[in-house]
Design brief:
This protein has 177 residues and is of the alpha+beta class. The chain has helices spanning 19-26, 32-35, 43-51, 57-60, 106-120, 136-144; strands spanning 9-12, 63-69, 75-85, 90-97, 126-132, 148-158, 164-173.
Length: 177
C-alpha cells in the first residue's frame, strides 16, 4: 500500500517475526508510563496478541502498525490508532520509536503517513494524542504535524516517582468533510 510508504520508512502490519521486538518494547519500563502499563507481558500473551492482530480496525477498534526502515525492513517502533470511533470519525494516536532511531525524522514521517491514511482511507474527522507535560519530544512532534494543544488534564498520570503529571490533549481536525 503506497499510502503507508515514505522516503525512509514504511508502516506495515505486525508479523509473527515481530514477537521478540514487541516483547522487548512492551516490557521496557521506560515506556510503561505512556502505555498505562504496570506489569510485564509474557511472550505467550504477546503471541496471542499477534495472532489476533489481523482483526479489522472496525472490529478491534484499534490498529498497531510497525514502523520499519525501507533499507532493511527492520522494526524501529510502533504507531497506534486506538479508541477508533467510526461514528464520531475520530481516533487516538500514539507513537514509539526505539531510542537508537530517534531524532532522525522517522517519527515525523510515520505520523504524516498515518494522518494521511486516517483522513483519506478511514475518513476520520480528527485524531487526538494524550501527552504528558514533560514529554517535550512528543509535544514538539505533534505540534510540528499541526496538532493543537486543546486541553490539560490536571494531575492525570501518577508516576513511579510518587508524583502526578498533567496530561495534555492535542487534536488535529481535518478540514475535509
Amino acid at each position: 500500500m503506497k499510502v503507508l510508504k515514505g522516503e525512509h520508512i514504511h508502516l506495515r502490519a505486525l508479523e509473527a517475526e515481530d514477537l521478540i521486538f514487541l516483547h522487548k518494547i512492551e516490557n521496557d519500563e521506560d515506556f510503561w508510563e505512556v502505555s498505562n502499563t504496570i506489569t510485564p507481558f509474557s511472550k505467550f500473551i504477546l503471541k496471542n496478541y499477534l495472532e489476533n492482530a489481523h482483526l479489522d480496525i472496525y472490529e478491534a477498534k484499534q490498529l498497531r502498525l510497525v514502523i520499519a526502515r525501507n533499507d532493511s525492513d527492520a522494526p524501529i517502533g510502533f504507531i497506534d490508532l486506538f479508541d477508533f470511533d467510526p461514528f464520531h470519525k475520530r481516533a487516538g494516536i500514539g507513537i514509539m520509536i526505539v531510542q537508537s532511531e530517534q531524532n532522525k525524522g522517522f517519527a515525523t514521517e510515520s505520523l504524516n503517513l498515518v494522518i494521511n491514511y486516517s483522513f483519506t482511507y478511514l475518513q476520520l474527522h480528527q485524531l487526538y494524542a494524550n501527552i504528558t507535560e514533560d514529554n517535550q519530544n512528543s509535544i514538539f512532534l505533534f505540534e510540528k504535524c499541526n496538532f493543537k494543544h486543546t486541553g490539560t488534564k490536571k494531575d492525570w498520570i501518577y508516576s513511579v516517582n510518587n508524583n502526578f503529571k498533567d496530561e495534555l490533549l492535542f487534536q488535529l481536525i481535518s478540514e475535509k468533510c
